[in-house]
Amino acid sequence: MQEQYSVGIYARLSRDDERAGESVSIENQKEMLARYVREQGWTLYDYYCDDGVSGTTFDRPGFNRLVQDATDHKINLVLTKDLSRLGRDYIEAGKYTDFIFPSLGCRFIALNDGVDTIRKNNEMLVILKNVMNDLYARDTSNKIKAVKLSTFKAGKYVGCYAPLGYRKSAADKHILEIDPVTAPVVRHIFDLRLQGNGFRKIALILNAEKVPAPRTFYYMAEGRENHRGETPFWNDVT
Questions:
Q1: CB 20 within 8 A of CB 136
Q2: What digits encode the pLDDT tens for the residues 134-155?
Q3: pLDDT at residue 79 is higher than 50
Q4: What is the CATH classification number for the domain harbouring 68?
Q5: Which of 82, 108, 205, 209 is the most buried (most CB within 10 A)?
Q6: What is the spatial distance between Cα 143 and Cα 81, in angstroms, rounded to a whole number?
Q7: Could you tell me which of 114, 111, 93 has the C-alpha nearest to residue 31?
Q8: Do 133 and 217 fall into the same domain?
Q9: Do the beta carbons of residue 27 and residue 66 sit within 8 Å?
């Protein structure tokens, strides 16, 4: 009699994958894996997704929920597109495929890599794939650092956000230009400081004047709302 499987589909996409142009979008992964589950006649319990999270860390919300459901025996099969979706740290990835999932009675399949822990002859394949994924992550990280360093040495800006009072040029995001919206705020802060006000007093004045805090300006510039819960007020360490 064929064993009944309650499947947890795990999908992950990192910023490095996007930079490399890999066609591994979360939706594509889910669609492909769900089709495979249907073809096998298994039961899909849930999707577990981490979007924009590096594979070099295993502390991910979606992955943590998947492990918890496996621990609670809500799922007994974890299905991913390939081993790199599980993670790109070969020691941690091996810990899950070789010890944690088996100890929970949970089968693991990396579909495109042909990895299936129910088979007893693919241990070496798993090791090699995990090592390759680890090396890929390290190589990608080094390349990104090298590009940023080269850009920095060329006198260009490499930060994610422009400092308050500036904005990134529309022609080149590595060039800063004075922002007509926030520059007056910076000048106002300098004037207040020259008048002898301390940082805390300046923050109180700006809040009393209802001047938006820096993060609020960033969200306004991007045309979106603040859903991250940061304080919308100035303080002495803003």
A1: no
A2: 655 565 555 555 655 666 677 7
A3: yes
A4: 3.40.50.1390
A5: 108
A6: 25
A7: 111
A8: no
A9: no
